[in-house]
Amino acid sequence: MKIRVPVLCACIAILMAPCLIRAQQNSQAPQNGAGQQYNTNTWSQPDSIRIVKEVRKRLLSLPDYDVFDSLRFSIQGRTVILQGYASRPVLKSDAERAVKGIEGVESVDNQIQVLPASPMDDRIRMQVYRRIYGQPALRKYTSGPAYEGEGPSVAFAAGGITQDPPLGYHAIHIIVNNGHVILTGVVDSQADADIATMQANLTPDVFSVENDLQVAGRPQESASKSK
Looking at CB atoms within 10 Å, which of 59, 103, 165, 180 has the fewest? Predict the structure, then answer.
């Protein structure tokens, strides 16, 4: 059975800590990216709790959600807003389909960004993954095998790591967009976040690294670091 994990974000990012869910119910009519207003009718508190839990559950169970993706969601009125990054287009459509099937959800605003198909980004994913999860201090953040040395890298390069991502649980997610890397997820300490960021920065062809990793037990915040 394949187990693939993403990250934990303000509304879903999927990892080791409880999911941070921001269910926004604004009194004014908010707008989506196209300038259209959302329906401001809201759910009852029990329905809101049920829907938030169900959205999180369904996103986490998507078979194509893996270490190279990061999803989050928020709620406006009775609309679920999906955001984040998908390394493959199928994840964006599958996420929308899964959420639309929840009783009480009137509409879904799918703002998930599909990352470009790029051989260079594919190589960067492979190398950053190997550097991060090959570190002894960071091995605790995955249930998959450690990829050290050249053997696994050659195999992944031949098949394409984006299309055939590593199996297992991953607390640190690696987003690559035209050579720019974003690390998302939850770690135990700032030291672990710094190690992951340093390893990503040392990867050839990486233009910049943004550290969006959260430290468990701390208020949500991001520490951006550029190469």
Answer: 103
22-114: which CATH number, 3.30.300, 3.30.310, 3.30.9, 3.30.420? 3.30.300
pLDDT digits (tens, 9 = 90+) for 25-56: 443 445 555 555 665 677 788 888 899 999 99
Given a cut of 60, whether residue 7 has pLDDT beyond it is no
pLDDT above 50: residue 195: yes
Structural domain boundaries in the chain: 22-114, 119-225
Question: Is the whole model's pTM more than 0.90, yes or no?
Answer: no
